[in-house]
Design goal:
This protein is mainly alpha-helical. 78% of the residues lie in helices and 0% in strands. Helix 1 packs antiparallel against helix 2, helix 2 packs antiparallel against helix 3 and helix 6 runs antiparallel to helix 7.
């Protein structure tokens, strides 16, 4: 059964990724990205990482793709641009040079960091510097919900103002996008 889930989810991911690349319409490409993100969430569920699957759907498939669609709407997909006309002639060679530099830096970092990887014995937030008492209880009792509880206390206790401001900002962005698109068509 796990093999079937893996094959189907992998087909979703690969099909969606291929759709992002080959679709000419940007809205269809964004919807193909949603298929890819759902496939990754299925992989998370198969690995019993339900929290990550929920975050994958809510944050990426929900918020990020909606943001992409806002940008697509604001840029206007009805105008076709001539790609043979180069506004900045040195742009493509410079992009190639920067890409080559990034690949070489990444390769050097991987080679230099190969021996630096070490393992730390512990679990969850105990290793990450969380609450030692809660991490000790999670380790001793085998309570996986203790770390999730600490994460929830952090996000909705210390960081609740940032989450509320982000939600207000997203609502303002939605309203502004709707107003800007309606003004252009009137």
């Amino acid at each position: 059964m796990r093999l079937v889930v893996f094959v189907v989810a992998s087909a979703m991911v690969l099909g969606g990724a291929l759709g992002v690349v080959v679709r000419r319409n940007p809205v269809h490409a964004a919807l193909s990205l949603v298929l890819t993100l759902f496939g990754v969430a299925v992989h998370f569920v198969a690995q019993e990482a339900h929290f990550l699957a929920a975050v994958q759907i809510i944050v990426y498939a929900g918020a990020i793709v909606v943001l992409f669609l806002f940008v697509i709407m604001l840029l206007g997909v009805d105008r076709a641009e001539d790609l043979s006309v180069e506004p900045i002639p040195i742009q493509r060679p410079l992009a190639g040079l920067v890409g080559l530099g990034l690949v070489s830096l990444l390769t050097a970092a991987v080679i230099a960091g190969r021996d630096a990887v070490g393992t730390v014995v512990g679990t969850g937030l105990d290793v990450a510097g969380g609450d030692p008492e809660l991490a000790e209880r999670a380790t001793a009792v085998g309570d996986p919900d203790a770390n999730i509880g600490q994460l929830a206390r952090n996000l909705f206790g210390d960081q609740v103002l940032a989450f509320e401001l982000t939600s207000v900002l997203l609502v303002v962005a939605v309203a502004g996008t709707v107003l800007l698109t309606r003004r252009k068509s009137s």
